[in-house]
Amino acid sequence: MSASLTELTGDYVLDPTHTRIGFVARHAMVTKVRGAFHQFEGTAHLDGADPSRSTGEVVIKAASIDTGVEQRDQHLRTNDFLDAPTFPDITFRTTAVEQRSDSDYRVTGDLTIKDTTRSVTIDFEYTGNAVDPYGNLRVGLEGSVTISRKDYGVTWNAALEGGGVLVGDKVVLEFDVSAIKQA
């Protein structure tokens, strides 16, 4: 049996084994490269009575980037892209939450990549809640946002012989979240 929105009020942690923080970027103007970050921590406070009072924070380890191609992943960790040795964390901290409908929320926050922080707004769909076999109350959210990597100082590229560039500027960040309510 699913809990009401008011019953969901409380503090949550992201379940890293059931949460995906991914991305999609255009490659060579013709295809998309998909990947994910495998090391992250996140917390949230959900206020079911007044969702605008909800908050959240996610800290992603930049070096955990994985596109399935180790050589590419190593390049993405360098100063050409994320500069993981210098800037090990990518962070997102909410600044506003707006309930748009029974299942749609607009979450605005500060996204920091490398040494640049910009405000982004992510539309999330609340996908439901359930008590798992271990007695944990879980909530699910799915959302995405498109950012310009150049806005964060990630400008490396290579020109293609026939025109265009190797790496597209727009990156779609994808969030499939399972969060567990804390006692």
Automatic annotation (TrEMBL):
It holds the Pfam family YceI. Transmembrane segments: none annotated. InterPro entries: Lipid/polyisoprenoid-bd_YceI, TTHA0802/YceI-like_sf. Residues 11-180 form the Lipid/polyisoprenoid-binding YceI-like domain. Belongs to the UPF0312 family. This is Polyisoprenoid-binding protein.
